[in-house]
Write a structure and sequence with these properties.
Strand content: 25-35%
Largest sheet: 6 strands, antiparallel
Distance between the termini: 38 Å
Structural class: mainly beta
Length: 194
């Protein structure tokens, strides 16, 4: 698998000027994230239920989407493509293009329909494994069993229940799912606890 370094471009997000949301109030945090997104003149956007993005419904970029996840691409516009059971978010164009792939849930999957509440209940762990939630994060650490030291996604998104390796480097948290040609690397910005 070819892995290219992603570039963090200037985005239309005014994080520094916005007050920080109280970390204990999920609704306030979500509202603060949504408030940071700046649309272009004449644009309107509506949140897409069950996803961390909004669809641009009016303006020059109508039909594109805005990332509202709070990760390193928060506030950036992308084109959404669904193909072969995956969802692709395509940011930029030409040599600056970044394609991020996601598994889409199959009918009947835990991630389909209602998203499960974050936590360790309902996870399909292997025999002898135990998991403990990691405070302030949407994942749990596997504390016993063959995969001890790995983490399991509890976010309720399309990767809910999937196991990953966690790597922190230069202020970025990387979640590495799978291996070989099926490997997916998801980069998340680490939040400071001010």
């Amino acid at each position: 698998m070819k892995v290219a370094q992603t570039q963090i471009a200037e985005t239309p997000v005014a994080r520094a000027s916005q007050p920080r949301a109280d970390g204990t109030n999920g609704a306030a945090f979500k509202q603060a994230l949504d408030a940071e997104i700046t649309l272009r003149k004449g644009e309107e956007a509506v949140p897409v239920e069950g996803h961390a993005y909004s669809e641009i419904t009016k303006g020059a970029r109508e039909g594109m989407y805005i990332n509202t996840s709070g990760n390193v691409r928060h506030g950036e516009a992308f084109v959404l493509v669904r193909r072969d059971g995956k969802e692709y978010h395509i940011y930029g164009s030409g040599k600056d293009r970044l394609v991020v792939g996601f598994h889409t849930p199959k009918p009947g999957d835990a991630a389909a329909g209602k998203a499960p509440a974050p936590g360790t209940s309902g996870l399909d762990l292997r025999k002898g494994e135990k998991a403990e939630p990691v405070e302030g994060h949407a994942y749990a650490e596997i504390t016993s069993g063959a995969r001890e030291g790995m983490y399991v996604n509890t976010s309720g998104n399309s990767r809910h229940g999937e196991v990953f390796v966690l790597v922190r480097k230069h202020g970025v948290e990387y979640h590495i799912y799978g291996s070989g040609p099926d490997r997916e690397v998801v980069a998340l910005s680490e939040r400071d606890d001010r």
